[in-house]
Amino acid sequence: MSDRYNVKETEARWQKAWEDSKCFEVTERADKPKYYTLAMFPYPSGKLHVGHMRNYTMSDIVARYKRARGYNVLNPMGWDAFGLPAENAAMENKTHPAKWTYANIAAMKQDLKLMGLAIDWSREIATCAPDYYKHEQKYFLDFLKAGLAYQKESFVNWDPIENTVLANEQVVDGRGWRSGALVERRKLKQWFLKITAFADDLLDGISQLGGWPEKVRLMQENWIGKSQGLKFTFEFTKPKGQRLEIYTTRPDTLFGASFVAISPDHPVAQKLSKNDMGVESFIEKCRKIGTSEAVIETAEKIGHDTGLTVNHPFIAGKTLRVFIANFVLMDYGTGAIFGCPAHDQRDLDFARKYGLDVIPVVIPPDKDGREFAIDMEAYTGPGRLYNSDFLNAMTIDEAKAEVIKRFEAAKTGQGTTLYRLRDWGVSRQRYWGCPIPIIHCQACGAVPVPEDQLPVTLPEDVTFDKPGNPVYNHPTWKQVKCPTCGKDAERETDTFDTFFESSWYQFRYCDPHNAKEGFAKDKVKHWAPVDQYIGGVEHAVMHLLYARFFTRALKKCGYLDFDEPFTALFTQGMVVHETYKGEDGKWLSPADIEKGHNGAYVKKGDNTPVTVGRIEKMSKSRKNVIGLEEVSVNFGIDAARLLILSDSPPERDVEWTEGGIEGAWKYVNRLWRLVTLADFNGKGGDTDAMKRKIHGTIDMMTQDLEKFHFNKGIARLRELSNALEDFSAAKGDGAVLREGCEALVRLMAPVMPHLAEELWAHLGHKEMVVNSSWPEADKDWIGSDTVTIAIQVNGKLRATIQLPKDLAASDAEKAALAETAVQKAMEGKAAKKVIVVPNRIINVVV
RNA sequence: GCCCCUGUGGUGAAAUGGUAGACGCGCUCGACUCAAAAUCGAGUACCGUAAGGUGUGUUGGUUCGAGUCCGACCAGGGGCACCA
Fold this sequence. Notes:
The protein is 34% helix and 20% strand. It is an alpha+beta fold and 846 residues long.
């Protein structure tokens, strides 16, 4: 027998056996509990790389493990197939987005098949197929009827040279990525979904998501951003009677107000710009910046004095100047604020820049008024009010309540709950997306496409020789008759945000071939919600929040009877790799380079030097991708799975290195030799120790898998195989050795499924390991009778002793004080105190 | 700018507030070999001959005891509503 494992032949053979037996295809059944595990579906960007692989491997482990535990496991796969890259590819390569997308799907599916995943392929979906998106067109019409969808004007990034809308990603340093033109903010009428109607519900729901990482729950909570504050109006000094509505979360600091600022998009600013060139050019300057909050917030804070002033509501005769400021967002609150520089850093920076007053009104608990001053750092901590008339000596909370009370009593203001969350704009001025099923009629307005005319499909005869949505210029597609009045009308040419498709796909998998509706209620009732969702942390807020909203919206329309789509969530880290650049500054792929004479990398072919760059997320643009095929050919999928799972904790990034995959491959062979060369006729060895190791490993690895500690579980597996190797070499008892090998194989099955099948068959089993159950740990063989106790003197380790498990504290203390190393460290002094932590540690304090 | 996360040997990482470095990679030495690869065995945080001391990004605190909890800071990463 060869001492090398024939990985290529073996992996292909078992993949075929799984496929032939259709063991991963599932239907609803009453005799087994269901388990739905889902990996976030991929965008078909081109080739599958080991970064994708990590995501699907984790779902695969869960699927195989839960299967072994007796669950009826649903583990589906599909394609998030609409999106911008397809249109970019269409422009660059003179192809059609559909052609490019479907070719990528075919290539990536082939790679996925190489992975031998426990996927029910009969449920495969692609979101760009009309039989998928027609259902979401129906949902949109339902949302419209339910008052959850509406139109309003909102800003987009406008490229004035290409005359097209740009995505934030396509704006680089404030300029269009292709044209180089300075981007402008421009208003367009667009469709919105009323996610804010569920703001409180989405917030409350977070507390029930116990299976989600704390950090994701926190991020969602902050994103929704519920705040209690005050809405009130300032009176303009002139024209008399005109008022400006403000929202603030710090009404307590009103006596420290030194200016008022409004958004460049505020109606007051707009009105002023008509007669004031200065205002007009300032607003124009503010708009020469994209719509992205990150850009707006990091831009230099600038303001423009409007010359208007308002009266302070509580200080007679005091007026505040009104500025237009680029950092005030029209989307939040009322688009107008008052600035209290002493207690808000942004206001302070602004005040220092424009020479405005800084009036401290909250004093820290440990200071008094004479010594407390604000320089360049605002004070945002707790304290008591001063310089504040009737609020003096109150706490911040008391002062907030008092100010709100006074405004409410005077009927000039209102305590208000506000959310940072904004309604979801779903209109995209793009071709490669789901058409919004609306017809615009001069007479009737926005009219829903009649349901019997769904789906509204994309026209196929389009070209991408100029920027923008080609449907807009299509000769006939737009022109229709109004369904209501029959007159000439036009189709909506915008398509949905691609988050629309990914908000409900988890339900489509439950009933993927249903032509009548998106899913049958009873099928979703059976499988949903998803028991374990797995994907990148980059989706922590938007995708996951949209899907949570969509589920509630579907419930409101009668499609479902639950709120939360994902019971548990795991956010896995990325696969990262070194990046390389050639002499010409262009990215090079790892396949393009090799080690030169002096050990440094050179470009293959011409031996020109290569610069090694940062270690970054694998991405097509940086070329630092390792394709799946090359890995599977050289080392097999099991070795790749092993590396990806064992090298880092799953929530952290893992670096793909050549050395790592070779090491994993060696271990695959070592396991193969251990089991195939084992002699089950031995009579010797320490059978008790071996049995403890076997059952201890089963126990611990089971716990590790339950907790997603795959790296630790694999470390336990290695400990067991090390022990079995020693036991085997010592001609250990054959029955125990077999018991150990069988446990090892069943434990490795979720991690290295192909090798496990091969070894399981070698051990004489007729049934595949994929259909066998998870091993049970025998409680009698878990743990041991003695424990090692550490002894510290004043917190420093001085000795370790073996003691019987659960020994009385007084006996343990006696044994510890009797140790010579302990006595030496005590230097003859008496113990002041002895802390005994049973079975762990004893600390002697002298 | 705002929200969230991460930081431990040469390196990937372990460690319910209780023996820091499990399990690997690499390296060193040895066995096998004509030789190499593969495989097997021993060693491997740092300083020190040793006794011992020092060590978890920096810094301060809480505690009998801190990688772990709290405060301040530094560095890196993710997200910020039209990338997916």
